[in-house]
Every structure is written in structure tokens, then in C-alpha cells.
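Subject: for your reference before the review

Hello V.,

The reviewers asked for a structural picture of the protein, and I figured it would be easier to keep everything in one thread rather than splitting it across files. Below is the amino acid sequence we used in the manuscript, unchanged from the supplementary table.
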Amino acid sequence: MGTAFPIERRVTDLSLVAYADESVRRYHDPRFDATAVKLLPGEHYVTAVPHEMIVTVLGSCVAACIRDPTIGVGGMNHFMLPESPDGRWGGACAAMRYGNFAMEKLVNDILKRGGCRSRLEVKVFGGASLMGASAIGTANGEFVLRYLKEEGLTAEAQDLYGVFPRRVHYFPSNGQAHVLALRRQDDLAMVAHETHYRTQLQLAPVTGSIELFGGRQQP
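And here is what came back from the structure prediction:
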């Protein structure tokens, strides 16, 4: 499988991830000399701004990085669960917690900004088997690959499964992705963060709708 841009991997310290202040969502990253946009679980972000970088941290979650290289528009999502119980792309599953909605939402937002589906470049990351979350990570990874196959899309690069959480830096303008493996001894912090998010999902109602590729609107 070809990779349009290299993926950089190295081990870093999970303490560098600022969970304490979730209000800090946009900041300057001196290492990359770029404006970084922090993506949290259940969110997605699309941009056409040069030198803007999307950053997220993944445990059992999965993030898809998708862009149209011709017009330089792209983005990233971050989802916890593969799909709704009924397996539908819209309706009751219309929340970013689910991979089927998260993927459709990200792709549709790129297309609405002038992207062309046949040109989409896709890279996927995450799905680690952390303590107590191995089944979820595997299911997320298998889902995103199945989704891409069913939609006629190809992952030009992927870094899925394994036992380490990851931090992903993605530049939609040029497609560069840097993946940093976080140290295993710090997995407890990642598990605690995802467990908290999963608990919120169980309490929060599922609402919203989604416009599918064919232009259909789910209630």
C-alpha cells in the first residue's frame, strides 16, 4: 500500500498532553511552527488554512485524516464507537460518538467546501488495545477499514491496533501526518480519559441528522 507522505513515529511522554485545561483548543506549536487545533473525542475539524495542524490523542479511539490534495481542504475526526446498534448511517446514530456518522460528517464537510470524492486522500490511526478496551479498539479499527472499502475509498497510510496510545499531528494542506507512540506506563491516564468520555456518551442523548453522499437526508 502506497504512502503519499511519511509517517513519523517516536515515543514521547503522555504528560505533554494537556488534559487539565480542555479550554485550550488553539495554540502555537513551536516545534512545527504551526497553529495547532486540538481535537477532542467526538469532534471533527475541517480547514483550508495553510500551516494549520490538527492534533489529537488516541487510545482505543480512531481518527481519520482526509483531504482533497488538489484544493488543499481537509480535516480529521475522532470517534469512540464503530457504529450505532442498528448499524444505520444516519437517524439514531447521528452523533460524532459513532464512527459511521463521524466518517460521513467529515467527508461531507470536505465535499461542501469544494472537495471531490474521487480525489480524497485518506489516512487512519488508532484502535489500540489498551487495558480493558481491547475489544473497542479492534472494533474501531476494523470498522474504519470496512467503511472505506464499502465507500470505495483507500487508506493511503494507516497505523492501527497495537498496544500503545498515539498522538497524531496532521497537516491538511499538504497531507503530512506525524504519529507519536506514547509510553505504555502512561496508559492509565489515557484509559481514564476514554472511560470518562464513554460514560458521558452513555448519559447523553443521541440527536441530529446527516446528509449522506447521495444527498439523502436522514431524520
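For the response letter, the relevant points are probably these. Residues 1-6, 8-24, 89-95, 205-219 have pLDDT under 50 and may be disordered. DSSP finds three helices and eleven strands in the chain.

Happy to draft the paragraph if you're swamped.

O.
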